[in-house]
Give the backbone structure.
Amino acid sequence: MAQNIEKIVLKVDGMSCSSCAAGIERKLNKTEGVLSASINFAAEKAQIEFDKEKITIEKLMEIVNTLGYTAIADAEEKKEKVTLKVQGMTCSACSNRVEKVLNKMEGVIAANVNFAVEKVTVEYDPQKIRLVDLKRKVSSAGYELILEEDEEKEDIDEDEIKVKKAEKTMVTSLLFSGAIMGLMMIHMFITPIRGYLPIIVLLGLPIIFGTGLHVHKASFKALKNKSPNMDVLVSLGSLPPYLIGLLGFFFPIQTFIEMATTIMSFHLVGKYLEVRAKGRASQAIKKLIQMGAKTARIIVDGEEIEVPVKELQAGDIMIVRPGEKIPTDGVVVDGSSMVDESMATGESMPVKREKGDEVIGATLNKQGMMKVEVTKVGKDTFLSQVIKMVEECQGSKVPIQEFADRVTGYFVPVIIILTIGTFISFNIFPDFHRGIMEWGAQYLPWVNPDLTPLTLAFVTATAVLVIACPCALGLGTPTALMVGSGIGAEKGILIRNGEAVQTFKDIKAIAFDKTGTITKGKPEVTDLIIAEGVEEKQVLYYAGTIEKASEHPLAHAIVEKAKDENITFGEVKDFSALVGMGVEGRIDGERIFVGNRKLMKENNVSYENYEATLVKLEEEAKTAMMIARGSQLLGIVAVADPIKEDSAEAIRELEAMGIKTAMITGDNKRTAAAIGKKVGISHVIAEVLPDGKVEEVVKLQEKYDIVAMVGDGINDAPALKQSNVGIAIGTGTDIAIEAADVTLVRGELSGIISAIKLSKATFRKIKENYFWAWFYNALAIPVAMLGLLHPMIGAAAMSISSLNVVYNSLRLKKINIEPGYKKV
């Protein structure tokens, strides 16, 4: 079953408010084969988990499309189409030759050459052929294919297009409604205008049926799908008043055309400001996407050529000069330089990268020239993974949001019922309502109790319709998450989901893995104790040979020490890693053991004479390993993993914040206690086997309730999953992002403090947004029902309510999430 489960992110166009999102979400979650569907109105994304055996991506998109919206798959296309410049053609025979050469190539679906403009359009399968192959083939035919042509096209900013479209709609609407309001003032207070009604009807037509047409279409779709939304309220508040106003041509009644056009105009102003603010909230993703390099220089057959980054493949050798961005993730094979990795880690100081070091795509080469072998491309790169994680967080939901979503689903139908009830009440009890309005008229200039009961009922009902604001409720969480996750990404803190944001603020204890988390994860040999009658080179020969077959970080330190002493390694046979004890194998026919007391006891190796030495090393926070040949102890090698510079400061600040700290390690109790004491850990758990970490996390949860686990994200995956918030910490491109709820790219514990501060601030903004949204609706709707709010004022207030939520979320950018101590 698990292998059939897939996750997809769809872009959803056409949503106008959170009720639209709720309607799509309901429909998808009721569909067979869909395990879960979550719609983020602010990000306009749908995250769907589904069983591919029961439903296809195409069917999911069809469901969204039938609801009246447009679903766009985020997946990469298998086929690509490019238009490139061809140089060297002198006649149509040349163009035919180029076309024929390209069409014969495997992987080319179609190639069409336009001789007049000297360009070729090629449709091809990037899995089978690369643009560089096309270039070489065309060159062999005697012509030149320019690969940079396609890169000259500017990237299209969808948010910018939406803002410009909303701005154009708003300005057009305001010009016409401004003219109507001006004429109304002249007609009412200066001099009656002859033919006033036909003029305002004509001026109102482009607003109601032009700039506002998309609102009516959206409301029709919403009613058709039985999920009324904000558009329904605006349509009911503008369309009927305009149509009723037309009766003024035949009957002597008051017209409401001015009110109808103003309501629509205010709605469009609100939408423009909302679209612009949402664009600002999603800037983090845009910044990340823009960070990537466009082209790369690679070596092909000894020649250096420039290709688009999307054409790179694993194994290509890239040339990266000073001042250039590293095009994609790779390993330095020649040269060295200082690299600015601030885009990934948030750390401003450049770091040295030389032969054998990993480098991250989109980071900046500051000094020397490097040759870098490509290791990851496309969706596998570090930058792509970061973008994916930020998008997932922005598309997720916080548990507190579930209640708001349920309320939003019923909000519009309830408002419509209240509107009908208000209209009926004003007609049945006109004197009661007139009395309230006469009192209100003393303080509020827009209240007019002298209108007929029917007119008062109509105006008041319209006010109830347009004052209600479900959008403020729907935008509360998404906008705060968008801003918060963006801030985190800039600081090297990647938060996977909204649930982690809510849980993080309530953490009572944090459990740390030792190696690579509290320590640097780069152990080194500190002591070598040789048994009597044994040579140092002999000990290093056996220890280095057997540990060369091991993947443990401590083994690497021993191997490096042996290499430094110019030891030539032998061949190990029957190698076996013994969990919680050490390693064993056969070298030159001899059985060799490297490990702890338990391993020595099981193989009858006597070490009692060295117990005091072992204890002393362990109390110095060193890991002592014994080397034995058969039953003979050859010596002891002590390895220490240096503690990170900021570990003690970070743990001290966490304890000061009221968060208990624990360290879970496989080290013996003395070594673990020594490290724990150095850094100030309050609870040390030692001698834990890898599969026992989960059990220890469970024990901590029983004691402290909400527990976070910090590990390298690879070896500690089960424990990270068991904890309430799993935190992966590390550096470079190998961080297992999938294993944790939060990933700290910089590899410093200070990131945990920043993540907690960011989560608390983000959740605080979410609560503030909900408070103001509820407060506004709870206050505005009853006041409107009493007839004390004019529909025009209601429409303006509704727009302000939504904007208040968005701009409150944007204030997150001003918070300081740095730890209180100064890093060493």
Observations:
- Residues 750-785 form the longest helix (36 residues).
- The CA atoms of residues 91 and 597 lie 84 Å apart.
